[in-house]
Amino acid sequence: xxxxxxxxxxxxxxxxxxxxWLINKSLSKDKDxxxxxxxxIINLGVQEALTCLDNEISKVKFVI
Length: 64
Hints:
By secondary structure, the chain is mainly alpha-helical. The protein has helices at 9-24, 38-52, 54-58.
């Protein structure tokens, strides 16, 4: 299962509740399985890559 979250404090509350629920149901023993800001970091990398490729992208002509 993958859950993508942004940077709000509600995410921390959700992950704590999910962790507690999984542990109580014996589905997990690990209390810290949250990759914080992972989607945000990937987004930053992609945005930087697109910026570097901007000149090449502008040369592409889309014909419909």
